[in-house]
Design goal:
The complex is a heterodimer of chains A (617) and B (145).
Chain A: H1 2-12, E1 21-28, E2 39-44, E3 47-54, E4 58-65, H2 66-76, E5 81-88, H3 90-131, E6 139-142, H4 158-171, H5 175-189, H6 214-232, E7 242-244, H7 252-272, H8 281-300, E8 304-306, E9 314-316, H9 318-323, H10 328-344, H11 354-376, E10 380-382, E11 391-394, H12 404-428, H13 438-449, H14 467-477, E12 480-486, H15 489-500, H16 503-510, H17 539-564, H18 567-583
Antiparallel strand pairs in A: 1-2, 1-5, 2-3, 3-4, 5-12, 6-11, 7-8, 9-10
Chain B: H1 2-17, H2 39-45, H3 51-71, H4 76-89, H5 99-112, H6 116-127, H7 131-144
Helix pairs in contact in B: 2-3, 3-4, 3-5, 5-7, 6-7
Classes of the chains: A alpha+beta (617), B mainly alpha (145).
């Protein structure tokens, strides 16, 4: 309270030349599994940075939307957050944000290089196989899946024919053929070994500079070739690449907005053909496919969409979805709401841009996928990000003009490079519970920036590496002006129930997993009977019940081992282990949720939350 | 066989007790069926129009600054390739047609402290001879100083 007043006085008293910005240190309470040690994050406005322990044992800096972070950790993971807020001048805030953003970009570049080097190896294996006569050797080409492999017997696309005519008007009648020849020559001239410095270094500082990887150069040129072939032959979209959205027809304003966007897209594609971008083929394929979908929307008056799910998207099997069939209507309603929001931009009267269209496309794809899974009783594809990138196997590989034995040598070198670089990276970003974890790296990044948050903290000293302890260190050493607790989903629901109903009745009903109306059994959670996060005094007793319950379930699980592949046994063993700390008053497990209806989600009560006041997460 | 399986279950569970900083990714699989995770998407579903655009500009500006500071602005082919990946995270495949790209590049160049002479070279190379794009880079540069 005193600190809150101090903050208000500092702001009112003009301690800052301009309105202060806020830096929030978040300590997120533990839950079972990989999050049993708790977690820490730094919130800078609508961005939240946090270091996450991931396979293969590395610590990666992640950046999430703050609203999403709160939803994922506070609602789905059901973890209470403790927020310590520091008011800083504009310049300090900008400096800190820049540091985290730069670190994020640098790290992303390193891991992209690792993937590219691995792809060099894969591509060279295919090319060598092709050179040795294996014509079955193919590579997957991103964006090509909208047109290839061709559907038999379909007539040319009117949208593509118009685009082709405009290209010829702009650059000459033989422009496309000339460009095809040019790209083919470039592909043949590529030399896999031309960039082979031994193994790229992982520089200690600064944005890394690596040579343009062979596989990227090759794929970019091949995508350009695919785009030019699709254009030259005015290929129509594959029948399975475009679907009608399951929503009401376009109104006249939306219809005009999409038609105008299609016209602009057509002009942009003509220009893209002459772009200096090395990777223009992929955006051309997507643009051409979208143009066809947009023209189909114009023609039919319905929203026609490309399939925007990435290749290899995560799949929720139908049998798992069936267990949640009662919430499918809520999922559909929320997806519909998201689409309505995105469509509002079509009615705004302002010309839409690619980003606006992409939002409509993504929201409509999600709705369509859900609807198809629910009604067709099939698996559900899900993806955090949607951008059309459907790929296709490409067998017409253009072989670089390099002898076979040289290709074999290049392949051996590529394997060595990929392996060494990955090893360097894994060493550099290795997770260490004590010295390189989610706390130590936040403090290290803040420390380097010299941002005026208060005293400098080192996550490797004493017990500060533990998220819970680190939050106290932050409160002690930084100029924390406000502390807030953001309750987990279950705790906030409980509080509301205690206000509305008879408390004893609520407690008896909600203290266990069998009669709770808030919690619903989630396959991710280990076996347990009693919630202990809100029962401090009774925690050891409840813990003992949980241990006994888990052991009993384990015995049943052992008997069921041949039938359920050990699921119940595994859940019980984990359940017993995560109940043990409860005997010593320590709570880790809180239960988690696969989905929470929007109407049931807590309000985003974080101070300075970006959304509309009163809007649910 | 059975004993080995039980032993591996116990060991993996104990290891899980001793680790941290992870999230159970599968726990939001169903939620991914209706929403995205990015800052841009948060913004697009909130009441702050233009925030998605701001997020894109921040990223391009930060990236430009980091790239130029480290490389001295050497290879623009690499610059374009990384920029393309960044833009895709914001739902943009054709970044050359997005005016914010050029304003943000200008802002990043200013933050990196490039000289007026260097700015002229960047404008020339990145605008592809399009005066309006060069003008946007200049505007971003002026506002970022």
């Amino acid at each position: 309270m005193r600190r809150g007043i101090a903050l208000a006085l500092a702001v009112a008293g003009g301690a800052f030349a301009s309105p202060p910005r806020f830096v929030d240190y978040l300590y997120i309470e533990a839950n079972e599994g990989g999050s049993s040690g708790g977690h820490a994050a730094l919130r800078l406005g609508d961005e939240t940075y946090h270091f996450q322990h991931e396979a293969p044992g590395v610590l990666r800096l992640r950046r999430d939307g703050s609203e999403h972070f709160r939803y994922a950790y506070g609602v789905l993971e059901n973890r209470t957050m403790h927020l310590s807020r520091v008011a800083v001048p504009d310049a300090t805030y900008a400096e800190l944000r820049q540091r985290f953003s730069e670190r994020y970009l640098i790290e992303r570049k390193f891991f992209a290089e690792r993937d590219a080097l691995s792809d060099d190896r894969v591509l060279l294996e295919r090319l060598l196989a092709h050179r040795r006569g294996d014509t079955e050797a193919t590579i997957r080409l991103r964006g090509a899946g909208f047109f290839f492999p061709e559907d038999g017997g379909t007539s040319p696309s009117a949208a593509a024919l118009t685009l082709l005519r405009r290209v010829k008007e702009a650059y000459g009648a033989d422009a496309v053929d000339r460009r095809i020849e040019q790209v083919r020559r470039e592909l043949m001239r590529l030399t896999p070994g031309s960039t082979d410095s031994p193994t790229p270094d992982v520089p200690a500082q600064g944005y890394p500079q690596f040579a343009y990887p062979f596989s990227s150069r090759y794929r970019d040129l091949l995508a350009a070739l695919a785009a030019l072939e699709a254009l030259a032959r005015a290929l129509p979209l594959r029948a399975d690449a475009c679907r009608a959205a399951v929503v009401e027809a376009l109104d006249p304003v939306e219809h005009r907005a999409l038609a105008a966007f299609a016209d602009r897209l057509e002009e942009q594609l003509v220009r893209l053909l002459r772009s200096e971008r090395p990777d223009w083929g992929y955006p051309f394929l997507v643009g051409m496919a979208r143009l066809a979908a947009l023209r189909a929307s114009e023609r039919t008056g319905r929203l026609m969409l490309l399939d925007a799910f990435p290749p290899g998207a995560e799949v929720v099997p139908w049998r798992a979805l069936r267990e949640y069939r009662d919430i499918v209507p809520d999922l559909l309603a929320e997806a519909r709401e998201e689409l309505t929001r995105a469509r509002a931009r079509l009615r705004s009267g302002v010309p839409i841009e690619e980003r606006d269209y992409a939002d409509v496309e993504a929201a409509a794809n999600r709705l369509l996928e859900l609807d198809a899974a629910a009604n067709g009783q099939r698996d559900l594809r899900v993806s955090a990000e949607l951008l059309p990138s459907r790929d296709a196997p490409w067998a017409a590989l253009v072989l670089p003009d390099v002898p076979e034995d040289e290709l074999a040598v290049d392949l051996a070198r590529a394997k060595t490079r990929a392996r060494r670089f990955a090893a360097q990276l894994e060493r550099r970003y290795a997770y260490d519970l004590f010295s390189h974890n989610c706390v130590s790296e936040i403090f290290a990044t803040v420390g380097v920036s010299g941002a005026g948050l208060g005293g400098r903290l080192d996550g490797r000293k004493a017990l500060d590496f533990i998220p819970f302890v680190s939050a106290r260190a932050v409160d002690r050493c930084w100029n924390v002006a406000q502390r807030t607790t953001l309750w987990s989903y279950r705790r906030s629901q409980l509080a509301e129930m205690y206000r509305r109903e008879e408390p004893l009745h609520v407690w008896l009903r909600e203290c266990n997993t069998l009669t709770s109306t808030i919690y619903r059994r989630n396959a991710d959670d280990s076996f347990f009977l009693l919630f202990t996060d809100d029962a401090v005094a009774l925690r050891p007793l409840f813990g003992a019940v949980n241990v006994a319950g888990a052991l009993g379930a384990g015995a049943v699980g052992f008997a069921l081992l041949p039938f359920d592949r050990g699921h119940l046994l595994a859940s019980s063993v984990r359940g017993a282990l995560f109940s043990l700390p409860e005997l010593a008053f320590v709570n880790l497990r809180k239960g988690s949720f696969a989905y929470v209806r929007r109407a049931d989600r807590p309000l985003d009560e974080s101070p300075g939350a970006a959304g509309t006041p009163g809007e649910r997460l | 066989m059975l004993a080995r399986r039980v032993r591996s279950l116990v060991v993996s569970s104990m290891v899980a007790l001793l680790t941290g900083c992870s999230v159970s990714v599968s726990s939001w699989s169903l939620s991914k069926s209706v929403r995205s995770s990015s800052r841009s998407s948060d913004s697009s579903s909130s009441s702050s129009p233009g925030a998605a655009e701001r997020a894109y500009r921040d990223d391009v500006s930060d990236y430009t600054q980091a790239y130029v500071k480290s490389s001295g602005g050497g290879d623009l082919g690499n610059f374009r390739a990384d920029l393309a990946r960044l833009a895709e995270e914001h739902g943009i495949t054709n970044w050359e047609e997005n005016p914010s790209t050029y304003t943000a590049i200008g802002e990043g160049l200013a933050k990196a402290g490039v000289s007026s002479a260097a700015l002229t070279a960047y404008k020339q190379n990145l605008s592809g001879g399009d005066a309006s794009k060069a003008q946007l880079i200049q505007q971003g540069y002026d506002s970022g100083r």
